[in-house]
Amino acid sequence: MDGTTGLKDTKNTLSVNVFTAPGKAMVGERPRPFGEPLGFDPATSTLIFGEYDAVLVDAMTTVAEAEALADWIALHNRNLETIYITHAHFDHFYGLSVLLDRFPGARAIATPKAVEGIQMYLSPPVQQLARRMFPGQVPTKLLGPEPYKGDTFTLEGHELRIIEQGRTDCPDSTSLYVPSIGLIVAGDVVYNQCRMYVGDTTPDSRKNWIAALDRLAALNPAIVVAGHKKPGAPDSPSTIQDTKRYLQDFDRLQKTATSDHELFDQMTALYPDWVANQSWLMFGFPGA
Ligand SMILES: [Zn+2]
Q1: What is the residue-level pLDDT of the chain in tens, covering all 288 positions?
Q2: Beta 43-49 vs 53-57: how paired, if at all?
Q3: Does a structural domain hold residue 288?
Q4: Measured in angstroms, how far is the CA atom of residue 169 from the centroid of ligand 1?
Q5: How many domains does the chain contain in total?
Q6: Of 109, 119, 223, 279, which has the fewest Cβ atoms less than 10 A away?
Q7: How far is residue 118's CA from residue 175's CA, in Å, rounded to a whole number?
Q8: Which parts of 170-237 fold into alpha helices (H)?
Q9: How remote is the CA of residue 188 from the centroid of ligand 1, in Å?
Q10: How far is the CA of 81 from the centre of ligand 1 (A)?
């Protein structure tokens, strides 16, 4: 900075911090009689922040998670401008009302297609299912984000790019890319040492998912935050290839396994260090 450049014109670099909520129990029956007791995998929210302002990506599920997340955001002493929701699954936005109560100046946004998908998760039957599985834990009031038509927004002059990924673990999923710091907040397009939700995929959707991963790899990122990760695992770009390999292994073994149990055991043996060994992640959400 020279003497003629005002501080306001100087772009400070952005920083990133990741909040990970541990896995949690769910009430109900496993879809298959093997694997760990019914439970939900650990999930992340990401804070991107400059000198004054911040953007949060994804908003957790339960009141306790969203309150802990809000306390953690407050520790950063930044103005929370925007909450970006990567996709429609409830585990990424049910905590939103708690966050908007704590940060009333923030705007919550998602792509128009994701907002459309979110309406289903706000419908009474799906709310009831979630309240049954997480008794007393889901916020009384549930809110969705506003549709955002652009494919970029900014934080202190830095561009944040929305990447539409189509159907990965969810229809109309997205990732968020911050070129100035080589950051990808991948949403559930990337998993990090955590069993992936392949229970809602088809051979075709897995092809699209792999194309989405190749799209992220081509950006040559320095940091990649997965939507679900083993607590403490580094946010490494190698998670893109790990996710791709898991999908390819699942695709291959699904064709040859003689039973669901065998497929589950084979996948578990290939990834012994990954967390969340719940059968619903492989065979579909219970009650869905
Ligand atoms: Zn998720």
Answers
A1: 444 444 555 578 999 999 999 999 999 989 899 999 999 999 999 999 999 999 999 999 999 999 999 999 999 999 999 999 999 999 999 999 999 999 999 999 999 999 999 999 999 999 999 999 999 999 999 999 999 999 999 999 999 999 999 999 999 999 999 999 999 999 999 999 999 999 999 999 999 999 999 999 999 999 999 999 999 999 999 999 999 999 999 999 999 999 999 999 999 999 999 999 999 999 998 876
A2: antiparallel
A3: no
A4: 8
A5: 1
A6: 119
A7: 16
A8: 203-217
A9: 6
A10: 23
Q: Give me ligand 1 centre to Cα 92, in Å.
A: 6
Residue 47 domain-assigned (yes or no): yes
Instruction: Dig out the tokens for 25 from the structure.
Output: 């129990």
Distance (Å) from CA 12 to ligand 1 centroid: 31
H/E element, 153: strand 152-155
CATH number of the domain enclosing 137? 3.60.15.10
For 271, the domain range is: 2-283
Cα maximum dimension of the chain: 72
In a domain, 108, yes or no: yes
Could you tell me the distance, in angstroms and rounded to a whole number, from the CA of residue 227 to the centre of ligand 1? 6
Does this model's pTM top 0.85? My answer is yes
Kindly state the DSSP code that residue 37 receives in the 8-state scheme: S
